[in-house]
Write a structure and sequence with these properties.
The protein is α/β, with parallel strands linked by helices and 318 residues long. It contains twelve helices and 13 strands. The chain has a seven-stranded mixed β-sheet, with helices on both faces. Strands 2-1-3-4-5-11 form a six-stranded parallel β-sheet, with helices on both faces.
């Protein structure tokens, strides 16, 4: 009788533990919440869903934003490491750096990092042999300058607002300075350390530039509406390197979809969850640059877009 009861207990308990062992725990952290970074998060989650991972069945997902604070990013990283998830997805450079510093064991997939080498996350584009891999949103500056000249053909000066503490932004700044000077185009770069500084910074560009070029600097994107207001009031075209900027008031944008970056990052997450080691997977760069146009913003900011430019856009809104 005792043997029967023991066998029954084992029979009843074993499936429970087998099921529990199949649940995968994914932790996602971002330095701040704004549309581009949110799209990366959503792309990762959708890729997991398409590969058979379902919330509350065989998948749990934790998400925390650092609300723009590097100190909070480090705190979140430590909390996630203590919770021992199967993998941590770190969106944007400060969160990725904090997570990489917090663990050498838990797999880390970075996403939306312009220059992971400068950020000291990887040494090169080969498999790292560590616990880190990921997807960069790096874009060559040459095609970006070609894009700028298509929208504003007679451009002589470009305004650029950046956060000095963001490696992504300072790398872009350096490349812009080098390539624009070769074409006798002046770059007026204005630092803005905090989101609250963006409005003041952009006002210093009045009367000095033919257009404002923006990248996914997290402070800038978080305060994008202040740039749009300035651009509309002063008839200065606002251009961007990320397509969803047109939804927020930019005239045009040329770049990769951050949702696609999320899906690409999600593919790496799936590979790791299925048993591959992060250190054996080469870091990747996002793909498929696309042009997006906002006709209404062009009118407000005094830009005449050629029919050829409009026809070449994958997305046009009024």
């Amino acid at each position: 009788m005792k043997r029967f009861l023991l066998s029954l207990i084992i029979l009843l308990v074993t499936p429970f533990f087998s099921f529990a062992d199949t649940i995968k725990n994914v932790a996602i952290t971002a330095i701040v919440e704004h549309p581009s970074l949110d799209q990366i998060r959503d792309g990762v989650k959708d890729e997991l869903t398409d590969n058979g991972y379902k919330l509350n069945e065989n998948l749990t997902v934790q998400y925390k934003s650092a609300q723009g604070s590097s100190a909070t990013a480090a705190q979140i990283a430590r909390q996630f490491v203590a919770a021992k998830p199967d993998i941590i997805v770190a969106i944007a450079t400060p969160s990725a750096q904090a997570t990489a510093a917090a663990t050498r064991q838990i797999p880390v997939v970075f996403a939306g990092i312009t220059d992971p080498i400068a950020a000291k996350l990887i040494k090169d584009w080969q498999p790292t042999g560590t616990n880190i891999t990921g997807v960069s949103d790096y874009q060559e500056i040459g095609p970006q300058i070609d894009f700028i000249k298509k929208i504003v053909p007679n451009v002589k000066s470009v305004g650029y607002i950046y956060s000095p503490s963001e490696i992504n932004s300072t790398v872009v700044l350096k490349n812009l300075q080098a390539l624009l000077s070769q074409q006798n185009i002046k770059l007026v770069a204005v630092p803005a350390q905090r989101t609250a500084d963006i409005s003041t910074a952009v006002n210093t560009l009045k009367g000095k530039v033919d257009l404002i070029y923006t990248t996914t600097d997290n402070n800038v994107v978080s305060a994008y509406e202040s740039l749009v207001k300035f651009a509309n009031e002063n008839k200065i075209p606002l251009l961007a390197s990320f397509p969803d900027a047109i939804e927020r008031g930019a005239v045009a944008a040329y770049g990769m979809s951050y949702y696609d970056v999320g899906r690409q990052s999600g593919k790496l997450v799936v590979r790791i969850l299925k048993g591959e080691k992060a250190g054996n997977i080469a870091p990747e760069i996002g793909q498929a640059l696309r042009l997006a146009i906002n006709i209404g913003a062009a009118k407000k900011q005094g830009v005449t877009l050629s029919p050829e430019v409009i026809q070449s856009a994958y997305k046009v809104i009024d």
